[in-house]
Design goal:
With 330 residues, this protein is α+β, with helices and mostly antiparallel strands. The protein has two domains: 172 residues, Gcn5-related N-acetyltransferase (GNAT) (Aminopeptidase, 3-Layer(aba) Sandwich); 150 residues, Beta-Lactamase (2-Layer Sandwich). Helix content is 35%, strand content 30%. The chain is built from ten helices and 14 strands. It has an eight-stranded mixed sheet, sandwiched between helices. Strands 11-10-9-14-13-12 form a six-stranded antiparallel sheet, sandwiched between helices. Helix 1 packs across helix 3 and helix 4 crosses helix 5. The two termini are 46 Å apart. Bound molecules: methionine sulfoxide (SME). Methionine sulfoxide binds next to helix 9 and strand 14.
C-alpha cells in the first residue's frame, strides 16, 4: 500500500503501534453507530479490528501536527457487480477533529490515488440516512446520488436502517468542479497583499516562493529563474539546490521562456531535454512572467514528486498567480 500525503495528513498502512490511537476513538458512542459498528468495549476488540485493517487497504489518517492516528479511510470490494473496475470506500474520523474538513482532505487524496494510479473506473460510497455529517462529506466530494435503499440492513443493535448510495465515475471525477478555483482565489489574495508595498525584487520573489511552497500541496521545488540575455539565471526559490543557468530553449524552463507559453509536464522523464535538478521531481509546470512590454523576463518553475500532479485547473490558477507576481515585480 502506497503512503499518501496531504497538507495536514499522512495516509498510511495501519501498524501495531496504532492500537491505542484506534481504541481512543473506536470506543466513542458518537462514532461507530453512525457507520454501523458497535463502539469498542475493550482494547482486545480493537486489536482484532486492527489486525484486519493491517491486512486490508485501510488508510490510517495521521494528523501530522500531533503524529497520531485520528481516523481511517477504507477501500473495499464493490458489493455490486458493476462490470467495471470499482471499489467502495468508507471512512471514520475521531469526533475531536470533526468540523475541520479533515475527512474531505483525506478522502480526496485517496480518490485521486484510486482514479489516477489504480485506474479505477467507479467508486461507490454510502451513508445511513440519519448520518448527516457523512452525507455532507459525500456531497462536498462531488459524489452523485444513486438512491436510498429502504431497510438496507439491520444494525448490530437491531435497528433497521436505510442507506443512501452514491457513486463517482472516472469521468465525473475529472469533471467535478473542485475547490481549486476557490483555493487559487484565496492564494491570489494572499499573494497580492504579500507583495503590495514591498519595494525590493529579491524580497518579493523570495516571499512569493515561500508562500507558494506553504500553500500548495505536494511540491518539492518552487522558484524563479530570471532572464539575462539568452539564458535564465536561478532566482529565489524553496527546495534543493538547483542549476544556476539554463540556456533559452533548453529544459522545461528554457522552452517555456523561449516559446512564451506555460508548459505542463505530466511526467518529466518523458520530456525530452528535461533538466533534472532534484531527482525527486516527477512532474513540473513552468509559467513565463513578463514585463510591461510583454517580454518574458522570468519564469516561475514548480516541481512535484508526483506524476501528473498538475492539471488544467492548476495551470489556470497558477497563471493567475503569475499575473499578480509579474505586475508587482517587473
Ligand atoms: N527541471 C527544470 C530545471 C530547473 S529545476 O527543476 C529547479 C527544467 O527542465 O528546466
Amino acid at each position: 500500500m502506497k503512503q499518501l500525503e496531504t497538507k495536514r495528513l499522512i495516509l498510511r498502512k495501519f501498524e501495531e503501534k496504532d492500537l491505542y490511537d484506534l481504541y481512543e476513538y473506536a470506543k466513542k458512542e458518537e462514532i461507530g453507530p453512525m457507520a454501523g459498528w458497535k463502539p469498542h468495549e475493550s482494547i482486545e476488540e480493537t486489536r482484532r479490528i486492527l489486525e484486519l485493517f493491517m491486512k486490508e487497504q485501510e488508510y490510517a489518517i495521521v494528523l501530522k501536527e500531533i503524529n497520531k492516528v485520528i481516523g481511517s479511510v477504507g477501500v473495499h470490494k464493490d458489493r455490486y457487480e458493476s462490470g467495471v473496475l470499482s471499489r467502495e470506500i468508507g471512512y471514520v474520523l475521531d469526533s475531536r477533529f470533526w468540523g475541520k474538513e479533515i475527512t474531505l482532505e483525506a478522502v480526496n487524496r485517496v480518490l485521486e490515488y484510486l482514479f489516477e494510479e489504480e485506474a479505477l473506473e467507479l467508486v461507490r460510497v454510502s451513508h445511513y440516512t440519519f448520518n448527516l455529517r457523512s452525507k455532507r462529506v459525500i456531497e462536498k466530494l462531488g459524489f452523485v446520488y444513486n438512491g436510498t435503499i429502504k431497510n438496507a440492513l439491520v444494525r448490530y443493535d437491531g435497528m433497521k436502517v436505510d442507506s443512501s448510495l452514491y457513486s463517482m465515475t472516472k469521468q465525473e471525477y475529472e469533471n467535478r468542479t473542485n475547490s481549486s478555483d476557490t483555493e487559487f482565489s484565496l492564494l491570489a489574495e494572499k499573494m497580492y497583499s504579500l507583495l503590495e508595498g514591498c519595494p525590493n525584487l529579491v524580497a518579493k520573489l523570495s516571499n512569493a516562493s515561500a508562500l507558494l511552497n506553504e500553500e500548495i500541496e505536494r511540491l518539492n521545488w518552487v522558484g524563479f529563474y530570471l532572464r539575462e540575455d539568452n539564458q535564465l539565471i536561478l532566482g529565489p526559490f524553496q527546495g534543493k539546490v538547483a542549476c544556476t543557468r539554463i540556456p533559452l530553449g533548453k529544459g522545461v524552463c528554457g522552452t517555456s521562456a523561449l516559446k512564451n507559453e506555460t508548459i505542463l509536464v505530466e511526467d518529466v522523464h518523458k520530456f525530452p531535454g528535461h533538466i533534472a535538478c532534484d531527482s525527486a521531481s516527477n512532474s513540473e509546470i513552468v509559467i513565463p512572467l513578463h514585463n510591461s512590454r510583454k517580454e518574458v523576463v522570468a519564469v516561475l518553475d514548480i516541481d512535484s514528486p508526483y506524476i501528473r500532479r498538475f492539471k488544467e485547473s492548476d495551470k489556470i490558477g497558477l497563471e493567475r498567480i503569475g499575473k499578480i507576481i509579474e505586475e508587482s515585480c517587473f
